Protein backbone atom coordinates (compact mmCIF):
# COMPACT_ATOMS: atom_id res chain seq x y z
CA UNK A 1 0.00 0.00 0.00
CA UNK A 2 1.26 3.46 -0.88
CA UNK A 3 0.49 6.11 1.69
CA UNK A 4 0.65 9.86 1.30
CA UNK A 5 3.27 9.87 4.05
CA UNK A 6 5.22 12.94 5.06
CA UNK A 7 5.64 14.30 1.55
CA UNK A 8 1.92 14.30 0.85
CA UNK A 9 0.17 17.45 -0.21
CA UNK A 10 -2.62 19.05 1.76
CA UNK A 11 -5.89 17.84 0.26
CA UNK A 12 -7.05 20.46 -2.19
CA UNK A 13 -4.47 22.93 -0.94
CA UNK A 14 -1.08 24.12 -2.03
CA UNK A 15 2.17 22.35 -1.30
CA UNK A 16 2.97 21.88 2.40
CA UNK A 17 6.61 22.89 2.31
CA UNK A 18 7.28 26.65 1.81
CA UNK A 19 10.22 25.82 -0.46
CA UNK A 20 7.74 24.15 -2.83
CA UNK A 21 5.94 27.47 -3.09
CA UNK A 22 8.95 29.18 -4.68
CA UNK A 23 8.82 28.89 -8.50
CA UNK A 24 11.98 27.94 -10.44
CA UNK A 25 14.65 30.66 -10.53
CA UNK A 26 13.06 32.58 -7.64
CA UNK A 27 14.27 33.21 -4.08
CA UNK A 28 12.36 34.12 -0.93
CA UNK A 29 12.44 37.65 0.50
CA UNK A 30 10.92 38.99 3.70
CA UNK A 31 11.05 42.69 2.80
CA UNK A 32 8.86 44.17 0.09
CA UNK A 33 11.02 45.60 -2.73
CA UNK A 34 9.71 48.57 -4.71
CA UNK A 35 10.00 48.41 -8.50
CA UNK A 36 8.70 51.29 -10.59
CA UNK A 37 9.62 52.16 -14.19
CA UNK A 38 9.26 55.94 -13.81
CA UNK A 39 8.40 58.60 -11.24
CA UNK A 40 5.90 57.68 -8.54
CA UNK A 41 2.53 59.37 -9.13
CA UNK A 42 0.83 60.79 -6.03
CA UNK A 43 -2.91 60.55 -6.45
CA UNK A 44 -5.14 62.12 -3.79
CA UNK A 45 -8.27 60.04 -3.25
CA UNK A 46 -10.42 63.09 -4.22
CA UNK A 47 -8.73 63.00 -7.65
CA UNK A 48 -8.92 59.22 -7.96
CA UNK A 49 -11.34 57.54 -10.36
CA UNK A 50 -11.59 54.08 -11.85
CA UNK A 51 -13.01 53.55 -15.34
CA UNK A 52 -14.21 50.31 -16.94
CA UNK A 53 -14.11 50.40 -20.76
CA UNK A 54 -15.05 48.12 -23.62
CA UNK A 55 -12.62 49.13 -26.35
CA UNK A 56 -12.73 52.94 -26.43
CA UNK A 57 -16.20 53.07 -24.84
CA UNK A 58 -16.46 53.87 -21.09
CA UNK A 59 -18.98 51.56 -19.40
CA UNK A 60 -18.81 52.79 -15.82
CA UNK A 61 -16.70 55.16 -13.74
CA UNK A 62 -16.36 55.07 -9.94
CA UNK A 63 -15.11 57.75 -7.56
CA UNK A 64 -12.98 56.69 -4.59
CA UNK A 65 -16.06 56.82 -2.38
CA UNK A 66 -18.17 54.77 -4.79
CA UNK A 67 -15.39 52.23 -5.29
CA UNK A 68 -14.99 51.81 -1.53
CA UNK A 69 -18.69 50.98 -1.26
CA UNK A 70 -18.20 47.86 -3.43
CA UNK A 71 -17.87 44.45 -1.72
CA UNK A 72 -14.43 44.10 -0.07
CA UNK A 73 -12.56 40.80 -0.09
CA UNK A 74 -9.45 39.75 1.81
CA UNK A 75 -6.95 37.37 0.22
CA UNK A 76 -3.60 35.90 1.28
CA UNK A 77 -1.36 35.13 -1.70
CA UNK A 78 2.24 34.42 -2.68
CA UNK A 79 3.73 36.92 -5.14
CA UNK A 80 6.57 36.47 -7.61
CA UNK A 81 8.56 39.25 -9.28
CA UNK A 82 10.41 38.57 -12.53
CA UNK A 83 13.54 40.10 -10.91
CA UNK A 84 13.58 36.76 -8.97
CA UNK A 85 12.14 37.64 -5.57
CA UNK A 86 9.09 35.86 -4.18
CA UNK A 87 7.16 36.78 -1.06
CA UNK A 88 4.82 34.36 0.69
CA UNK A 89 1.47 34.89 2.40
CA UNK A 90 1.01 38.55 1.47
CA UNK A 91 -2.28 39.97 2.81
CA UNK A 92 -4.47 42.11 0.58
CA UNK A 93 -7.91 43.64 0.74
CA UNK A 94 -9.84 45.09 -2.14
CA UNK A 95 -12.53 44.61 -4.74
CA UNK A 96 -12.49 41.41 -6.80
CA UNK A 97 -12.65 42.03 -10.54
CA UNK A 98 -15.78 39.83 -10.45
CA UNK A 99 -17.46 42.36 -8.16
CA UNK A 100 -16.40 45.32 -10.35
CA UNK A 101 -18.02 43.63 -13.38
CA UNK A 102 -21.13 42.76 -11.37
CA UNK A 103 -21.50 46.37 -10.24
CA UNK A 104 -21.15 47.53 -13.85
CA UNK A 105 -23.74 44.92 -14.83
CA UNK A 106 -21.64 43.37 -17.59
CA UNK A 107 -20.28 39.97 -18.52
CA UNK A 108 -16.82 40.01 -20.11
CA UNK A 109 -17.48 41.04 -23.75
CA UNK A 110 -14.01 39.98 -25.03
CA UNK A 111 -11.28 37.56 -23.92
CA UNK A 112 -8.61 40.13 -23.01
CA UNK A 113 -8.08 43.03 -20.64
CA UNK A 114 -5.59 45.89 -20.58
CA UNK A 115 -5.08 47.43 -17.15
CA UNK A 116 -4.19 51.14 -17.18
CA UNK A 117 -2.46 53.25 -14.54
CA UNK A 118 -2.11 56.91 -13.57
CA UNK A 119 1.59 56.88 -14.55
CA UNK A 120 0.83 55.69 -18.10
CA UNK A 121 1.80 52.09 -17.30
CA UNK A 122 -0.31 49.32 -18.78
CA UNK A 123 -0.31 45.55 -18.75
CA UNK A 124 -2.39 42.90 -20.53
CA UNK A 125 -4.10 39.95 -18.83
CA UNK A 126 -6.51 37.39 -20.32
CA UNK A 127 -10.04 37.67 -18.92
CA UNK A 128 -9.76 34.07 -17.71
CA UNK A 129 -6.99 35.23 -15.32
CA UNK A 130 -9.00 38.19 -14.04
CA UNK A 131 -12.34 36.58 -13.13
CA UNK A 132 -13.32 33.64 -10.93
CA UNK A 133 -11.67 35.07 -7.83
CA UNK A 134 -8.22 35.28 -9.43
CA UNK A 135 -7.64 39.06 -9.42
CA UNK A 136 -8.59 42.16 -7.45
CA UNK A 137 -8.09 45.88 -7.28
CA UNK A 138 -6.31 46.04 -3.92
CA UNK A 139 -6.76 49.02 -1.58
CA UNK A 140 -5.00 47.61 1.48
CA UNK A 141 -1.83 45.63 2.18
CA UNK A 142 -1.22 43.99 5.55
CA UNK A 143 -4.37 45.63 6.90
CA UNK A 144 -3.16 49.17 6.10
CA UNK A 145 -4.02 51.51 3.22
CA UNK A 146 -1.74 50.61 0.32
CA UNK A 147 1.49 52.65 0.46
CA UNK A 148 2.08 55.06 -2.43
CA UNK A 149 5.31 53.26 -3.45
CA UNK A 150 3.39 50.01 -3.77
CA UNK A 151 0.63 51.53 -5.90
CA UNK A 152 -1.65 53.31 -3.45
CA UNK A 153 -4.41 54.35 -3.44
CA UNK A 154 -5.14 51.19 -5.50
CA UNK A 155 -3.33 48.56 -7.54
CA UNK A 156 -4.28 45.55 -9.57
CA UNK A 157 -3.34 42.22 -7.96
CA UNK A 158 -2.96 39.19 -10.24
CA UNK A 159 -0.82 37.10 -7.90
CA UNK A 160 -0.57 33.92 -9.99
CA UNK A 161 1.29 35.81 -12.75
CA UNK A 162 4.64 37.65 -12.44
CA UNK A 163 4.18 40.80 -10.40
CA UNK A 164 4.61 43.23 -13.34
CA UNK A 165 1.01 42.21 -14.22
CA UNK A 166 -0.14 43.75 -10.92
CA UNK A 167 -0.39 47.33 -12.18
CA UNK A 168 0.21 49.92 -9.46
CA UNK A 169 -1.86 53.16 -9.33
CA UNK A 170 -4.45 51.43 -11.49
CA UNK A 171 -7.15 53.70 -12.89
CA UNK A 172 -9.05 51.40 -15.17
CA UNK A 173 -9.59 48.14 -16.97
CA UNK A 174 -10.27 47.99 -20.68
CA UNK A 175 -11.64 44.98 -22.53
CA UNK A 176 -9.82 44.50 -25.83
CA UNK A 177 -10.57 42.26 -28.82
CA UNK A 178 -6.95 41.05 -29.03
CA UNK A 179 -4.27 40.37 -26.42
CA UNK A 180 -2.57 43.78 -26.68
CA UNK A 181 0.90 43.96 -25.12
CA UNK A 182 1.32 46.53 -22.33
CA UNK A 183 4.34 48.51 -21.10
CA UNK A 184 6.74 45.65 -20.24
CA UNK A 185 5.26 43.22 -22.76
CA UNK A 186 6.25 45.73 -25.50
CA UNK A 187 9.77 45.85 -23.99
CA UNK A 188 10.69 42.18 -24.08
CA UNK A 189 8.70 40.63 -21.28
CA UNK A 190 6.46 37.61 -21.84
CA UNK A 191 2.94 38.20 -23.09
CA UNK A 192 1.47 35.96 -20.31
CA UNK A 193 4.06 35.64 -17.51
CA UNK A 194 3.42 32.38 -15.64
CA UNK A 195 6.11 32.17 -12.90
CA UNK A 196 5.79 28.36 -12.65
CA UNK A 197 6.69 28.07 -16.36
CA UNK A 198 9.38 30.79 -16.06
CA UNK A 199 7.72 32.87 -18.75
CA UNK A 200 10.00 35.85 -18.15
CA UNK A 201 10.89 37.09 -21.62
CA UNK A 202 9.12 37.16 -24.99
CA UNK A 203 11.04 34.09 -26.20
CA UNK A 204 10.48 31.94 -23.06
N1 LIG B 1 1.87 51.63 -12.71
C1 LIG B 1 2.91 50.80 -12.57
N2 LIG B 1 2.66 49.56 -12.12
C2 LIG B 1 3.67 48.69 -11.96
C3 LIG B 1 5.00 49.04 -12.29
C4 LIG B 1 5.22 50.36 -12.75
O1 LIG B 1 6.35 50.76 -13.05
N3 LIG B 1 4.15 51.22 -12.88
N4 LIG B 1 6.00 48.12 -12.13
C5 LIG B 1 5.60 46.70 -12.18
C6 LIG B 1 6.64 45.79 -11.79
S1 LIG B 1 7.84 45.45 -12.96
C7 LIG B 1 6.62 45.11 -10.61
S2 LIG B 1 7.72 43.89 -10.26
C8 LIG B 1 5.64 45.46 -9.56
C9 LIG B 1 6.39 45.91 -8.33
O2 LIG B 1 5.49 46.22 -7.32
P1 LIG B 1 6.06 46.73 -5.92
O3 LIG B 1 6.86 47.98 -6.20
O4 LIG B 1 4.88 46.95 -5.06
O5 LIG B 1 6.94 45.63 -5.42
O6 LIG B 1 4.76 46.50 -9.95
C10 LIG B 1 4.38 46.45 -11.30
N5 LIG B 1 3.38 47.45 -11.49
MO1 LIG C 1 9.07 43.61 -12.13
Salient structural properties:
binds molybdenum atom; Sulfite Oxidase, Chain A, domain 2; binds the ligand Nc1nc2c(c(=O)[nH]1)N[C@H]1C(S)=C(S)[C@@H](COP(=O)(O)O)O[C@H]1N2; six-stranded mixed β-sheet; mainly beta; single chain; five-stranded mixed β-sheet
What's the short story on this structure?
The protein is built from two helices and eleven strands, in the order E-E-E-H-E-E-H-E-E-E-E-E-E. It is mainly β.
What order do the SSEs take from the amino end to the carboxyl end, as H and E?
EEEHEEHEEEEEE
Number of DSSP helical runs: 2
| Cofactors, ions, other ligands | the ligand Nc1nc2c(c(=O)[nH]1)N[C@H]1C(S)=C(S)[C@@H](COP(=O)(O)O)O[C@H]1N2, molybdenum atom
Distance between the termini: 41 Å
Please give the CATH class: Alpha Beta
CATH architecture title? Alpha-Beta Complex
Q: SS-based structural class?
A: mainly beta
Shape: globular
What's the structural domain tally? 1
CATH-assigned fold name: Sulfite Oxidase, Chain A, domain 2
Topology:
Layout lengths: L26 E2 L20 E6 L2 E7 H5 L4 E8 L4 E12 H8 L7 E6 L4 E5 L9 E6 L2 E2 L9 E3 L12 E7 L28
Parallel strand pairs: 1-5, 2-11
Antiparallel strand pairs: 2-3, 4-5, 5-8, 6-7, 6-11, 8-9, 8-10
Bound molecules: ligand MTE and molybdenum atom.
Molybdenum atom binds next to loops.
